[in-house]
Amino acid sequence: MxxxxxxxxxxxxxxxxxxxxxxxxxxxxxxxxxxxxxxxxKNYKHIVYLNFFENPDYASVFAGSLEVDNIVMxxxxxxxxxxxxxxxxTVLILDEIQDCPEARTALKFFRIDGRYDVIGTGSLLxxxxxxxxxxxxxxxxxxxxxxxxxxxEEFLWANGIESPLIEMLKKNLETETPVPEALxxxxxxxxxxxxxxxxxxxxxxxxxxxxxxxxxxxIQRDIVRSYEDDMVKYAERxxxxxxxxxxxxxxxxxxxxxxxxxxxxVKKGSTASKYAGSLQWIEDAGIISRCYxxxxxxxxxxxxxxxxxxxxxxxxCGLFVSMLEDGTQYDILQGKLYGYRGAIFENLIADxxxxxxxxxxxxxxxxxxxxDFVIRYRGExxxxxxxxxxxxxxxxxxxxxxxxxxxxxxxxxxxxxxVGRSEQILTLPLYMAFLLRSL
Length: 439
What we know:
This protein is an alpha/beta fold. It contains 19 helices and 14 strands. It has helices at residues 6-15, 32-43, 68-79, 101-105, 107-113, 152-158, 163-175, 181-197, 201-210, 213-234, 240-248, 250-255, 263-266, 272-284, 317-322, 328-333, 341-355, 394-400, 403-406, and strands at residues 22-25, 46-51, 90-95, 117-122, 143-146, 288-294, 305-314, 360-364, 370-371, 373-377, 380-386, 410-415, 420-422, 425-429. The strands form 3 sheets. A 5-stranded parallel β-sheet has the order 2-3-4-1-5, with helices on one face. A 5-stranded mixed β-sheet has the order 10-11-12-14-13. β8 and β9 (370-371) form a beta hairpin. α11 crosses α14.
């Protein structure tokens, strides 16, 4: 069974006095239902489980009075022995809660009542055109946690890399000393595997159990197809084809030298006014992350971001690679990437940063200066260059030479290296990106 970080978040939520109903938000098939049910089995005597997607009839329970006693009575009548409600011992799980807006409105009544814990999961919460919005979103009556596909550290756990080895890597980072060769080579291999497998639980479990990449690829492409089906099924009529076109343009967008998202790449002659809402739909569904250009390299990054100049990355690098042509997975695992490798490894680092909760920023000037990512690290504005293999960092060195203009004094170069330093630039192996958590 895959170990997930959400387990710790769920435990902290339950142990918080007077905790509110919980909403777990995330893209489809990232493991929300499995994790919530597993947690419930370990922590409650009684579980009442409703899946509104599989059983739309359950919505009728919330069609009348939303008083807790009335809901409990209705569920008991509907489910019989499967609905045991005892104060402090029962959790009500509302799966795919976006399919029943009234159930989300009811959360404020459960919050006031306080006898039963409630956990809702949703994959398309707030997505424009998806069903009906709740009459009243229970502001202040719910706690929301974002859940993602497995991040690189969770992938390492799944592949037998436990805490002692990760602590060793952290020490190498802190002391800026090289990683022992055997561990270094194993981590490089695991990183390439993560690039092609990504973090969708079904894909990861299949890879761990079988190592059959053709089966993993089929799972990934089925997930991508299900996303496209959602776009056709749930988006507003006028947006359906545009959303799909935006989504399918992502590989083309990232193959360009200047990877700024361009609506004209989606469809010749198209503009932001026509497609901006479609891109927003995909982002709201948890499928992509935006990486905003900075007007200047200084903190706070959010305050210096240009809202209309951005790149787009897939939230899960494995799904991104699955959208490329057949044979790409094999090429990556063999280290043969040629022209497209920059896009693949940038998406990898975007995946790692976004899953740790970082907002994504980059820096590009018409003069030719371009830095892949800019992050807050250890209290400083820090440049991050991504090299699929090795390579110079000309833009980074130019910026570092002019602190009076760019206000930057440190940079990290991620690539096919071991740990080292050259003046202001810390070089790290790509696999260490997941350790850059310090703000």
